[in-house]
Automatic annotation (TrEMBL):
Gene designation: mdh
Broad class of enzyme this protein falls into: oxidoreductase
Record-annotated Lactate/malate dehydrogenase N-terminal domain positions: 6-144
Record field: transmembrane: none
Similarity field: Belongs to the LDH/MDH superfamily. MDH type 2 family.
Keywords from the UniProt entry: NAD, Oxidoreductase, Tricarboxylic acid cycle
This protein's record includes keyword Acyltransferase: no
Protein name in UniProt: Malate dehydrogenase
Amino acid sequence: MSKAPVRVAVTGAAGQIGYSLLFRIASGEMLGKDQPVILQLLDLPQAQKAVKGVMMELEDCAFPLLAGMVATDDPNVAFKDADYCLLVGARPRGPGMERADLLTANGAIFTVQGKAIAENANENVKVLVVGNPCNTNAYIAGAAARKVGRTNPNNYHGMLRLDHNRALSQLAAKTDRPVSSLKKMVVWGNHSPTMYADYRFCTSNGDSVKALVNDHAWNNDVFLPTVGKRGAAIIDARGLSSAASAANAAIDHMHDWALGSDDWVTMGVPSDGSYGIPAGVVFGFPCECKNGDFKIIQGLEIDEYSREKINKTLGELEDERAAVADMLK
Ligand code: NAD
Ligand code: LMR
């Protein structure tokens, strides 16, 4: 018997990430090739015509799993009974900006949307914030939702999967091993240049990647800056921020959360105090996903170098949290 459709809300549906994301959700790449979906598309009033155009193209793909579509500029409509929400709609940064520069411009969006999700969505809704600065926006949405109750505050995530995937590709090139052989990658912290991409636990076909690389200077001076500043390098090269790779990472995050992962995956999740990260801070942690749920991997050793990196990215997130405190009153 075929499954009942699930409702997937996507904000910023007329934007560049939306244009890569929606077709892959509708084709079953996110939730499985047997899972029908209803797309609930939110964008600003002035973008509604463009959203209609995207919907026309979705129709023209004749996706067997696409069971319905709604376009709206009203968050209460977009999030109604939603099982999954992908919060992409926000301003991207341009050349010379850091993601934190978007804090006030974009933060306000997430108080409204967090509340609307908590009031309207399925109680078990899974929320992924892509719009930058995504950790703090997820924190804002989660805090707004917490005031309403109903939904699970641990289910408001920020997207660090793009950083995780970028780190895997850099390591595959350095070690001359296929990406598919690499397991147990971790990216700690904020989706910003302070993130700490940590391959100390990473293996390739059972071999230690740290031993294969065996080059601390490369780690410190090449790998970390390359992964941390990859978003800016893409903006410099394309004149626009990453879109297809961002959509791909969003698909990966939701896919693994919903259907399970056979490896560690990096997710920006509200801290439960693990590794000394204060509760509630949305932080990149190594996670395992099973039965539609996620769990932070416990017990990893944090050496002095790693603790310093983790403290730096945490400090930045705490500053961002302080900067938005007024929005959450
Ligand atoms: P874009 O400008 O192409 O599209 C953004 C869309 O959001 C537009 O259609 C706009 O009308 C819409 N929008 C703006 N405010 C909205 C609101 N309040 N409600 C609903 N829709 C709204 O931008 P993009 O390239 O698609 O990027 C979107 C966001 O994703 C940016 O903040 C960007 O920085 C971020 N991003 C994050 C990652 C990540 O790894 N976390 C990666 C890439 C991009
Ligand atoms: C990225 O990492 O590519 C995105 O967060 C976009 C940006 O502003 O860097």
